[in-house]
Structures are given as structure tokens and as C-alpha cells.
Specification:
The protein is of the alpha/beta class and 365 residues long. The protein is built from eleven helices and twelve strands. The strands form two sheets. It has a ten-stranded mixed sheet with strand order 2-1-3-12-11-4-5-10-8-9, with helices on both faces. It has a two-stranded antiparallel sheet with strand order 6-7. The longest helix has 19 residues. Bound molecules: 3-isopropylmalic acid and manganese (II) ion. 3-isopropylmalic acid binds next to helix 4.
Length: 365
């Protein structure tokens, strides 16, 4: 029997409770699809600061290094908000782990079942069939990581600088990810930039255009300025299929995409890098998009779907278990659309617990 080796980093807030349910579902899926789970748990984020004095401890890094994927909960919370920004869990755990494993491709599906369309802040007549798009975001370049990056004194005042940098090779490798995503969808990519202002965007547009012409002439490529894209996403999200962009634009647009898809409790994500094993599938970090939700942590009422769907993405991308991934995604859809719902998506249905939501999904499977 195939054994899937991954690191489990539940993190803070609702992370551990939704992770428990996700692991139960992965185990049950393995029994049916003939794989076993070989995972090791480690601290990340606030809990790692408490236990090890740092948000991304060396011991956690080692466990991830020895794995083929990382199933991630979420990090951060009020307890650590008074720390200097650079030491806070989000910046001191998430950004370094992305960089440490070169997780350059962030894949965020924006999926809203039509049955849940009232969860969206958009008028339901704009999204009669729900929403189904995906955002491909470059994750290890751009203004997040460019140098120089500092705060200094000059002529009696404080000055801060961030630098936006892109290399051709960085743009080409993420372009390939957008192409791969488009192939299994509507073969349509909208590349988002600010080429009317930014040098990095002029390069982005040129490289993307040439790369697609050479490697994916059958994919329909369009370009859009980021301000317009933000507007179009709110006006008519389904005009997009694959939304493809650089790091910071992707950060902003993927949050907008998240909110129009209703509950963050439903949105999974994958951050992918190069393969580092004999499976030749991407190493990846899989995490829900919703964060630690400190207001409801510990109450057993959080929506586990995003964590479960992140687990499904892990099966698909890092382990090639497509049938098992599809089975989980179908089971989540069928449980939710037939009325099993946590509070964030209840809308008049009775709100059930995290654990009960997991049981409903298991039953649907
Ligand atoms: C995200 C988050 C992170 C980012 C933060 C927490 C560093 O907002 O994953 O989108 O900006 O990338
Ligand atoms: Mn973000």
C-alpha cells in the first residue's frame, strides 16, 4: 500500500480543531483508495513562539524537509499581535516557509456552489450559477521579497523602502503553472499587471505573452490592469477562468475573490514548488484561506471544509491521488448542498459543529 508522507502543522486558533477533522477524512479516504498516512506533527506560528521562542523553529523545518507535502492550519492571533511586526506569526512563519521551500506558485480556487450563492455579498442575480474561478499567484518574488527593503533615517525623517523585482525565469515558471491550470479548465487565462506604470509589469506582460505564444498557443490569453481587474471581479467574476498575477496583486485579488465566494471557511489553497522526491510531483504547502478565526477558536464550531479541501488539493498535486481528491471534493459539495452546514454558511439551516460537519462529509463519501 502506498504511504503518503507529509508534515502536519496545525498552528493557532481554529487550526488544530479543523485539522483533526481533515485528518479523519484523509484517513477514511485512504482506506477506500488504498493509501496510508504517514504524518508527523510540528509547531508553527504563535504556538511555536510559545514553545520554542520562534515562529518557524528549526525542528519544524526538518520535519517539513523530510516530508513530501505540508498540511498547514493557520497562524496568528491576538496573543502575538503586540510583538514587533517582523516577529509576528504571519510574517515570521508563513513568508520564511514559502521561501525555504521555494513555494512559488499559489493556487486559490474561488468556488461558490450555486446553492450557497446567498453567502456571497454579490447580488445573487449576478452569480446565478455560483462562482468557479482560480487565482494563480506568484508567491516568492515581487515586492514581498525584493531588496533593498528597510526603514532608515534621512535628513531628519524616517524613510521606508520596499523593492519590486521580477526576473524572466520567475515569470516563466509561474506562467507554466497558469497554463497547466487552464488546460484542465476553460483554456482561458487573464494575466493581471500594472504595465501602464510599473517596469516589473512591462516585463511581466512581455514574458507572459511570449511564453504563452511559444508553449500554449491554444490557450486564450488576455491582459488586464490590476485596478480594472479588482472592479471586474466584483462586477462579473465568472468572466474570468484563470486569474494570473504577481505576488502583491495576487494577495489583494485573492482576498477579493475569497469574499465574493461567500465564506472563507470554504476556500482551500495550495502553495507549490518543485518536486523533491521520486514521485516527481510538486512539493506543496496546503492551507485554508480563512485564518485562525480567534473569535470562535476552541468552541468546536469552525467550518472544517477549507482544511478538508486543502487536504484534497494535497492528494491531487503532491501525491497524484486524483480520484481520492475528487471523492473528497464531491463529498464536501454534497454534504453542504444537502444542508449540513456550520454557522458561517447556515442561512436558516441548523448550524452544526465542526465534528458533525466532518461526520456529514464522511457519510456523503
Ligand atoms: C496570504 C496572507 C499572507 C500574504 C500574509 C499573512 C503574510 O495574507 O497568504 O494571502 O500576504 O501572503
Ligand atoms: Mn492575503
Amino acid at each position: 500500500m502506498k504511504s503518503l508522507k507529509f508534515a502536519v502543522l496545525p498552528g493557532d486558533g481554529i487550526g488544530p480543531e479543523v485539522m483533526d477533522v481533515a485528518l479523519d477524512i484523509l484517513k477514511a479516504t485512504g482506506e477506500r483508495y488504498n493509501f496510508s498516512l504517514e504524518y508527523e506533527e510540528a509547531d508553527i506560528g504563535g504556538i511555536a513562539i510559545d514553545n520554542h521562542g520562534t515562529a518557524f523553529p528549526e525542528s519544524t523545518h526538518r520535519i517539513c524537509q523530510a516530508s513530501d507535502a505540508i498540511l498547514f492550519g493557520s497562524v496568528g492571533g491576538p496573543k502575538w499581535e503586540s510583538l514587533p511586526p517582523k516577529e509576528q506569526p504571519e510574517r515570521a512563519a508563513l513568508l520564511p516557509i514559502r521561501k525555504a521551500f521555494s513555494l512559488y506558485a499559489n493556487v486559490r480556487p474561488g468556488l461558490l456552489y450555486s446553492e450557497l450563492s446567498e453567502a456571497s455579498p454579490l447580488k445573487t442575480n449576478r452569480i446565478p450559477n455560483g462562482i468557479d474561478i482560480v487565482c494563480i499567484r506568484e508567491l516568492t518574488g515581487g515586492i514581498y521579497f525584493g531588496q533593498p527593503k528597510s526603514t532608515y533615517e534621512e535628513n531628519g525623517e524616517t524613510v521606508a523602502i520596499d523593492t519590486m523585482v521580477y526576473k524572466t525565469s520567475e515569470i516563466e515558471r509561474i506562467a507554466q503553472v497558469a497554463i497547466d491550470a487552464a488546460k484542465s479548465r476553460q483554456k482561458k487565462v487573464c494575466s493581471v499587471d500594472k504595465a501602464n506604470v510599473l517596469e516589473t509589469s512591462v516585463l511581466w506582460r512581455k514574458v507572459v505573452t511570449e511564453y504563452f505564444a511559444k508553449h500554449a498557443p491554444d490557450i486564450e490569453l488576455s491582459h488586464m490592469y490590476v485596478d480594472n481587474a479588482a472592479m471586474q471581479l466584483a462586477r462579473d467574476p465568472n468572466q474570468f477562468d484563470v486569474l494570473f498575477t504577481e505576488n502583491m496583486f495576487g494577495d489583494i485579488l485573492s482576498d477579493e475573490m475569497g469574499v465574493i465566494c461567500g465564506s472563507l471557511g470554504m476556500l482551500a489553497s495550495a502553495s507549490l514548488g518543485a518536486s523533491k522526491n521520486s514521485l516527481e510531483l510538486p512539493f506543496g504547502l496546503y492551507e485554508p484561506s480563512g485564518g485562525t478565526a480567534p473569535d470562535i477558536a476552541g468552541q468546536g464550531i469552525a467550518n472544517p471544509c477549507a482544511q478538508i479541501l486543502s487536504g484534497a488539493m494535497m492528494l491531487r498535486y503532491s501525491f497524484g491521488e486524483n480520484d481520492a481528491a475528487n471523492a473528497i471534493e464531491n463529498a464536501v459539495k454534497s454534504a453542504v448542498t444537502s444542508g449540513s452546514r456550520t454557522g458561517d454558511i447556515a442561512f436558516g439551516n441548523q448550524a452544526i459543529s465542526t465534528k458533525a460537519m466532518g461526520d456529514a462529509i464522511l457519510k456523503a463519501m
